[in-house]
Amino acid sequence: MKQPDSTDMEVVPLILKSTKLASVCYDIRGPVMARAKQMEEDGHRIIKLNIGNLASFGFEAPEEIQQDVIHNLPNSSGYSDSKGLFAARKAIMHYAQQKNIAGVGLEDIFIGNGASELIVMSMQGLLNTGDEVLVPAPDYPLWTAAVTLAGGTPRHYLCDEQADWLPDVADISSKITPNTRAIVLINPNNPTGTIYPDSLLQEIIEIARKNRLIVFADEIYDKVLYDGVSHTSIASLADDVLFVTFNGLSKNYRACGYRAGWMIVSGRKKHAQDYIDGLGILASMRLCSNVPGQFAIQTALGGYQSINDLVAPSGRLCKQRDLAYQLLTAIPGVTCVKPKAALYMFPRLDPRMYPVNDDQKFILELLETEKVLVVQGTGFNWANPDHFRVVFLPNADDLVEAISRIARFLEYYRKRYGKK
Asked: Which of 87, 275, 281, 376 has its Cβ near the most Cβ atoms within 10 Å?
């Protein structure tokens, strides 16, 4: 029999995560999703309305893009320039010209492993401890997480549901302090599907100009537009403010897994050269973004834009948006601003009928009861537990089934907890 030695008697200390992660969360892939995965492993079929992962719902990247990536695989074994392939950046430069963003050269463009990598990079390159960044509420939670991870403090400004989720300019101004470095704009917006008019963009530019703020513009859904609306890049409206604009192939071109995104630095660059040099250092540290995905960019940005067929009134995305909106707003106590863009809805629950105190617990109960997965509103840094986000990517039959299950759960919930 083995005798215990001294090492067997030691108390092994726990290995803890970095304290920098203490306030960082990303509930779109959080603990409720982990529970859904466990349920799937146990044999349950879960209808997922939580993530805008288009390929999972039959939305594939155009074949022309696929073929160009395959054709160029033999040329993809080596590193590219740390900012990206010349041809890909040239195509992005031309796209910036189409969006009327002035003064963009090749050196102003950084290609990354999706826009997500570049969002994190842009915050790491800018923020010191105590610096503040204005972030919308609700937001795409990566922005809040990226600010926090970089040592900054996110200050959430209100997007007003009563004004179709447009940012509240007065609230933005009230949140500015001497430590504020930048403002984040998500347009078209995730999770609300709102698109911002030029007049509002001009007001935000004036705030940035007056307070010497950088504008970070997340425009990843700029082609996913319904009802004939158009999108204006905020960077096209001024040249005396520093803009950093993010986009990529994930949504417009249904190529989430290609991890091909970019950021464009424009506007008042002369006074930001040290920051831009810092972005170059960070780009070099990760060597380059994946090269096969970069080969998709030039093909995607040129030629026929198949997203237009999907968002047209007869297109699958538009029809599914209309169906989801109709079904959700037919549920007693559920209201929703109809999205003009993107892939999501952010419905509200009447708190008198649905007195939810913990919305993560609420969506977990929905998952376990009805096998439908959504994301709670507080996961998007919305303060009150009265919203949730729905992805309308599943086909019509699955949408009808999923929302009927949500309706059944809500009927049970209001009968059990609602105020009589």
From this structure: 376
What is the residue whose two structure tokens read 């996961």? Answer: 379
Q: Give 111's strand partners.
A: 262
* CA distance linking residue 285 with residue 119, whole number of Å: 16
Tokens representing 104 are 């963009």
Residue with structure tokens 């079904």?
Answer: 327
Identify the pLDDT of residue 303: 84
* Cis, bond preceding 188 (omega within 30 deg of 0): yes
Q: Does residue 345 contact residue 339 with C-beta atoms inside 8 Å?
A: yes
Query: Which residues sit opposite 48 in a β-bridge?
Result: 373
For the chain, the three-class secondary structure string (H helix, E strand, C coil) is CCCCCHHHHCCCCCCCCCHHHCCCCCHHHCHHHHHHHHHHHCCCCCEECCCCCHHHHCCCCCHHHHHHHHHHHHHCCCCCCCCCCHHHHHHHHHHHHHCCCCCCCHHHEEEEEHHHHHHHHHHHCCCCCCCEEEEEECCCCHHHHHHHHCCCEEEEEEEEHHHCCEECHHHHHHCCCCCEEEEEEECCCCCCCCCCCHHHHHHHHHHHHHHCCEEEEECCCCCCECCCCCCCCHHHHCCCCEEEEEEECCCCCCCHHHCEEEEEEEECCHHHHHHHHHHHHHHHHCCCCCHHHHHHHHHHHCCCCCHHHHHCCCCHHHHHHHHHHHHHHCCCCEECCCCCECCEECCEECCCCCCCCCHHHHHHHHHHHHCEECEEHHHHCCCCCCEEEEECCCCHHHHHHHHHHHHHHHHHHHHHHCCC
Residues 119 and 145 sit within 8 Å (Cβ to Cβ): no
pLDDT of residue 82: 95
Phi, psi (rounded to 5 degrees) for 182: -160, 165
Cα-based angle 302, 308, 314 (whole degrees, multiple of 5): 160
- What is the Cα–Cα distance from 89 to 110, expressed in whole angstroms? 8
pLDDT digit string, tens, across residues 88-125: 999 999 999 999 999 999 999 999 999 999 999 999 99
- Residue 420 is predicted with a pLDDT of 55
Apex CA 385: angle with CA 403 and CA 152, to 5°?
Answer: 120
Q: What are phi and psi of 118, to 5 degrees?
A: -75, -35
Residues linked to residue 391 through DSSP beta bridges, in sequence order: 344
Residues of the chain with pLDDT under 50: none
Q: What span, in angstroms and rounded, lies between the C-alpha atoms of 141 and 25?
A: 8
